[in-house]
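Recall the central idea of this unit: under ordinary conditions, the amino acid sequence of a chain determines the structure it adopts. In this exercise we apply that idea directly, starting from the sequence alone.
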Amino acid sequence: MNGKKTLVLLVGSNPLPNYLAAATLKPARVLLLYTPETKPPKERLVHALHDRLQIPTIDIDGAQVEDAGSAKSVRAACKGKFADAHLNYTGGTKVMAAIARLVFREEKGLDVDASYVDERNGLLRFDGDVPSLPLATDELGLDVILALHDFARKPPSEALPTDPTPRDAETMARWCLEEPTRATALYRRVSRNLETKAEPISYKEFADAPLTEPLQVPGDEWSRKAIERWIKFLRGPWQELWAAEVMRTLAGAEAALHVGVNLSRNKRDTELDVLMIRGHRLYLLSCTTDSTPDLCKLKLFEATWRARQVGGDLACCALACLLPAEGVAKVRADVEATWGESNPPTLFGLDELGAWIGLHSAPDRTSLATWMKS
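Accordingly, the structure predicted from this sequence is:
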């Protein structure tokens, strides 16, 4: 920070860029400029800075911008705030960024002491002629991202020795991808067994490849909880468990993956299938065994909205489904016609999933790897 101790941040609705700037610059203290509308994300940012980065904040109440669209209001809030400070003007409104930068220059701030977060390229860029810095992400994990966006994560269930494994999931994926109607039939049959133990479901009935241990759902020797886990698995989560394992093999140690993440926000619960944190970016892969274009399109838009809520504007989203090629083309055309973002959602259909598992030839995961690096 060129010897400056204070970092000034403009807080908008998404506090993630602010956190990344602070984590990269490591100031002694932070001053936050915010509006009445962005007071909640400001408060979440304060907690994250204190708890994760041990950075104190100062003059918070005295730095409120009463009207983010008024140059006069922004100027009044900024005046006198930039002495011995570095300004990062990534957040806030365009008016806030423009006027804050202008006041910073008027108060003799140097270009090398002004910066913005380039999320797309993972860089902190300076206005002066100095090299950009890679964004610091060592302290950024799913818990921080969730806290910044006001999500609480419910603790995962305790694992059981009888829980389905990634190998089980791959076996199910191969069996269902060979004949997609099996997934729907399996869902219906397992659903009928949800409340009764009649007509036990033998796993071997659904797969050619043998398991490490022969398993039967339900089985008299299993606990009720174990039975319920497998019933849920056979109804569809085999897909997310398999897809997450494929992603894990591609990402290696570069990313952290989370499967079946249960979240709560404003007393409303939601479950996200596969989340990946790679650097500063969040990736959401939603999974469905459906093969109806309209429903898949709806699920894709819902997943995209969830991804932006959890991970910010540049979060990446994709849907893995069992749509055949013609259905995929239809949904993609609809999405391209309505989505104006620079990072539109991605759709993986039956052909792509078949390629990932090597259904007709050697596995080809290029489409997934490309999305994971987008």
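The first strand starts at residue 6 and ends at 10.
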